[in-house]
């Protein structure tokens, strides 16, 4: 540990492992996923090769191989020596196999059900349902509905049943029978074409900038300045109260807003005597939903600006204030000429920092409106989450969701780089003084 | 200062703006021990029935104590590791010779506002490969990663304020840089460690989306997921019960807040100055 | 990891051999996940009962088997499906999943579930007694993938007193179900009657007609009311523009007429149940299973106050009265352990026995799955299940088992919501839905 250069890297290494595992690797994977059609049905880890009605329909339609498709779909079951051998390997009792050979060798069947029924009638009937199923499957002479891990295995199995395939047919078969995901640029094309994409983008911009301007900087500024002009007691009280939303767990915090806003909620009950019919204030109209989404996020966001601005105001030398008072400056003049100029950099910092936080946050919206009513408050991050991971029908579209996330990653990184320039990043990174 | 100005209009104005917030928190307490008739604003009876979840499992939900234990473990382990990793990395970035320093620093700032939560599918896949899907440890690792950029940046900021003379003196006495860090510098940033610890604990205690997606099992359920599932249940709608569970959930947070308020205010404002 | 597991298994096997066969009681843990409401605990409990019986069967045969059933309850479909899908991908899926039949296709393609027919005997009682149409609904690509757990349907409900107040007689109400079925009483009549009730001051504005308060399969019924169908004969999804427009337009008309609120979707369930069981709503549509809640939790005297029918026809030429059934099925997931999968199969079989299934059917007001269930007195004595089975089930359709249906569902629902809340015009919503589906599904969906 003598060399401080090594020590630096060693101390940084644990953080590096976390960053690589949970930032860099996910970005790389997301970038890959964004160019696939990955979904619930295709799975994430790869698919299998299956001959079934829909893949064979595709074989017929896309490659004109209707005859082959028909042949592959034909099921047949034969009790022969090979099948008996397979049955033995699957764990069937010797006596059962003997009896089968004796009574039924060479018989053909069209469905597995027929063999199962016959097995159940044997004197040496297999003990469990599962054993019957396995023995019956040993006599199958088709590949329908069987999952093969590779196209070679599928082709080998098919050829094992005496169907010879041309190279083109093999290729076509491998193509249509694959159940897993494939690479595609369709996600981005779809994204460009869909009107909802642009609506979601517009929503996102509206959400980010209105919350930012109204609360994260605007209201934060009001709080900081007002508490500056207050005695320490009330000032401390208000700062504490406005910090509560930030530290309250989101699930509970949003629940409290719901209690305030919905049909039987506090707001409705308060307004009822005034002749205003109870309604779900949270979801009544898009305007209402937006109001609440901005309030909910803004109340959380205001605290950070409030604290930073407050400490910046505290850093202003007191004599400046006294002098201006002696000069008879109004409070407004004080704010304009003394406070605000001092807050230029903190405001810029909060604005840029919180743009990024708002852009990528969706937890509060998910819990409050879930993007409603009718998608009015659906923002980009929420849409990406829902596409990839959460929807009622259970059709998760990992690929499309990843493509959407990727857009957010690119925007986030570009904005961060711009901000780094803006804040004169070099100044933050002066070299250590102990070496040299 | 500002003695010439009247203060009460300010207090009144802000008081009005703050009323909804105060109401929400007051009713959070009140509703857990009372019943309110439909349509009324004030409660009319005292009851403890909404707290029944403490001694009996609600239908279909695991024990609240298990969820509390999980949440506690989640928050505590997250905090400890975030503290250890950030104080090491922060020191390295602040004081030690490092190749590509500005790259690392810039990287941390970029990661700070990274849309990690939207990368959940990829994160899921990585946890699965590590065999950590549906484990508390898996979610903890992800949560730590999310908290690290902030933690490192804060710690770096505080190390920056430690006078160089302390270290110089240590080195002259023959200590290694590692010893200097451990014995001389770390005690100097104790307030930062305390504050970062509280913030990480609160962040871990509140986390919702990560455990929801990455650890759905009953035995690893945390309070946020417990409460969200309770609220989502179409058939058992009971606002006062939700609030009671919510209050139970938020109590430790409020206690921490009351005791460490000033520390928190310091770090939220001070640490991010840079 | 896998190697490690194999070594462990091998070790375990050797140690068991060493210990001799007598002393070791075999222990298996079967995990079951279900999304269930308060009255639906038998989705998981039936498996627990089955486990108890199965243990006794083993014991009777002189074998020892200890089965631990670990249940996990979800309360939101999207979270439930997310969890099952991800756990399946991670290879840690629960042994048995109780889910919608609509999940069969994607989960089968992804290899998360195995065909139930490979693990149960469909030729033997009680499974050979399951209504054939229900088994058909659990079939995908010619294989039976799941065992139906319950059936239901989603009818229209009318508040008797208000219907009478706007001119219907008791006889009219008694005939209403038949008139709906014949296509004489249409969705347009629903809107008219709801309006009349509001105009007469019987119900508040916006409470004449209340649909289900959240997203759900129910809304496909309106698509069918206007003649829409789910799939073509060769198994591709079908998007019927006219029917889709009809369905969307119906809700827009309802809003314009003032009988349904624009922001209805998102209404909390308690409020929905509370309003309609206390006579605040004139006409609504819901699920047969909600009967249990209405009568038990909200104390509704159902047969005195309510008349129920199929979903009326849209009144256009192709329109027809209909209802949707959306059975849940027991699914067996793919596991490394062949033993666990066969035990899961045995448990599901036992759980389908009439007496056990009747517990679920009656407690949660679902419809039974086997014919012999009608002979179980608990079931036979229940007026609701009897009448609902008679009036609704013969006309019930189900959504197709198609891997892409979930996506179609999502897009259809989003479009409906956009039109309903006035975010888009009906034409625009239908056109956008079509665009999105065409882009996402290509040849897999046909537009007509």
Q: Main attributes?
A:
heterotrimer, A: 436 residues, MetI-like fold, 2 domains, two-stranded antiparallel sheet, 67% helix, B: 274 residues, mainly alpha, 1% strand, globular, disordered C terminus
Description:
The complex is a heterotrimer of chains A (436), B (274) and C (448). Chain A is mostly helical. Chain A folds into 2 domains: 53-177, no CATH class; 196-429, MetI-like (MetI-like fold). Chain A is 67% helix and 1% strand. Chain A has a two-stranded antiparallel ribbon. In chain A, helix 6 (112-120) crosses helix 7 and helix 11 runs parallel beside helix 15. The two termini of chain A are 18 Å apart. Chain B has 2 domains: 8-47, no CATH class; 63-273, MetI-like (MetI-like fold), CATH 1.10.3720.10. Chain B is built from 11 helices and 2 strands. A two-stranded antiparallel ribbon of chain B has the order 1-2. The two termini of chain B are 28 Å apart. The model of chain B is unreliable at 270-274 (pLDDT under 50). With 448 residues, chain C is of the alpha/beta class. Chain C is 46% helix and 14% strand. Chain C contains 19 helices and 16 strands. In chain C, 58% of the residues are buried. Classes of the chains: A mainly alpha (436), B mainly alpha (274), C alpha/beta (448). Chains in contact: A-B, A-C, B-C.
